[in-house]
Amino acid sequence: MNSTTRKIATFLTITALGTAVFPLTANQVHAATYVTNIAATTTQLNQQQIEAAIKDLNSLGIMNGYADQSMGEHRAITRAELASLVFKTFNLESKTGETVELTDFNSNAWYAPYASKLVELGIMQANDGQFNPQTQVSDAELEQVVSKAMQRDVKSVHHWMSEFYSENGTATRGETAVLLQTAHQAIPSEQAQIKSVRSLNAITLIVTFDKPLTAANEAFAKAQTDFAFSGGLTLTNMPRLKTGSIATYIVPTSVQDAGEVYNLTYKGQDAGSFEGSGTKINMTTVSQVTNDTFEIEALQVNSVVDYGYIISAYSGGRGANAFVLNDQEQAGGKTYQIISSMQARQVVITPEGGEPIVARYVPFTQSTDGKQEPKFRLPEGQTLKSGVTYTVSSDWANIENASFTAKSFDPLVVASAQAVSETSIEVTLDQDPGDELFSGRSVTLTSPSGDVLTATYKYSSRKGATGVFDLTNDGKLTPGTTYTINPVGDWSIASSVTLTPGVKEAV
Question: Residue 316: CB partners within 8 Å, gap ≥ 6?
Fold first, then answer.
């Protein structure tokens, strides 16, 4: 049955479940007062799924039954009931937020502490103090509430609801139980341990844990310590949770040796072994973008996807372009190669008749403006020579069109600059540079006394032609001092551009 047509008026018999398995509490007896309608639904979930989920939540003390000895699994769930279930599933008792006053129910109501807490935390809404405890919960509201409660991306929660979600549908208690059973399994744990590890390509592992990692354990510095490989293999950036998964991570590594068996320990415990992959990522075309920078394109139509489109952390920012890959890295009938983090990656670029040059990845440029085009830059002070043909090679990528003939690019022009704090300035160019031109760039600020400060671009801060540059080495601007701005290197030019902190800026 198609999920878009499942919300058809129907009467579903309530299955009575014994009190030996599902003990009643006073709260649940009172809860029956607030659920009087049978949900007008059919569902792709089978009764076994629903009963298993309810039994699981019951054993955890999260969900109980009604005075009539039933669980009411096919009844529409109310906001009061949802508040109770979410509060208990995610153990929100110790969380604090902004105090609110709810005016449409008595403070002695069984659901009062749950409703108040969820509104206080911003997980559920109450306009003008009206919580509407008896209102039935839509699928869309259930999706938003669970996403906020567990601080997980909406697309993952939507994926977990895919068997019963309907655009204008009303959620049942049974459907809610199935979703919360999954969500409870996806609560991060400090004790998470690795269940399996496999190599996906020459720079990427797929690692599945028994529970998701905490934010602290995902952090790169911590993960570098926790993940230890044999054979000189290293972690090159933080592990990233796949959208739609419970606890499966994309883990970037240094380039693996094909066929070598690597051992992995996690937090000092043996986490298994895997064979290094010789699979290189299929990239399409190399193109020059500045006098010292080029990009290597990859295309989703060729079944290559940057990890930014399929990880939970980036899902919200990618909007409709984000999607879910299953455990076989498939979606829409296609199997995808995954480009994991380019952090610390490099390629070799060789001029015709010349010596090879190592070019390094420019941070935060691998997937921007809807394109999969990681940028690479020559060593500082070196430029691509106009008219010379260059060929790019890599130990992690196959590049279909690997050569280009360099041309000369005019430098950008700094139009103005202004202080935004004692440690940051905004630099505005005369045209939108695109991420690849700001990334990794610096400017100097010279005072009348000759003192020089250096400011470096803050990654991902660009808005059109303006980017934020942070002072380095704990530098601070002196109010009232007029600084002259000059780019470091040839990426841009500036003519008499100044800024004076605390004074209206003029060019």
Answer: 153, 154, 155, 322
User: For the chain, what's the residue count?
Assistant: 507
395 contacts: CB under 8 Å, gap ≥ 6: 202, 255, 280
Q: Which of 458, 460, 456, 430 is nearest to 443 (CA)?
A: 456
d(CA 364, CA 350): 24
What percent of the chain shows pLDDT beyond 70? 90
Cα gap 370→373, rounded to integer Å: 9
Indicate the residue type of 241. Answer: L
Nearest C-alpha neighbor of 385 from the set 297, 295, 294: 294
Asked if 13 and 51 count as a contact pair (C-beta separation under 8 A), the reply is: no
Q: In what order do the strands lie in the sheet with 240-241?
A: 194-201, 204-209, 248-252, 240-241
Cα distance between residue 272 and residue 141, in whole Å: 41
CA distance 360 to 375: 8
Selected residue with higher pLDDT from 456 and 436: 456
Contacts of 161 (CB under 8 A, 6+ apart): 139, 142, 143, 175, 179
Q: Give residues with Cβ within 8 angstroms of 358, minimum separation 6.
A: 346, 347, 348, 379
The token duo for 28 is: 């649940």
Residue with tokens 């920078």: 293
CA distances from 328 to 22, 173, 205, 336, 337 (A): 38, 32, 13, 9, 11
Beta pairing, strands 492-494 & 337-339: unpaired
Per DSSP (E only), the strands in 91-226 are 194-201, 204-209
CA separation for the pair 57, 457 (Å, rounded): 49
Q: What is the DSSP letter of 34?
A: G
- In what helix (H) or strand (E) does residue 404 lie, and over which residues does it extend? strand 403-405
Lowest mean pLDDT of 4-13, 397-406, 426-435, name the range: 4-13
| pLDDT value for 251 | 98
Beta-sheet strands, E only, within 203-292:
204-209, 227-229, 240-241, 248-252, 261-266, 269-275, 281-288
Report the pLDDT averaged over residues 108-130. 94
**Mean pLDDT across the stretch 197-210?**
98
Per-residue pLDDT tens for 390-420? 999 999 999 999 999 999 999 999 999 999 9
Tell me what pLDDT residue 69 has: 66
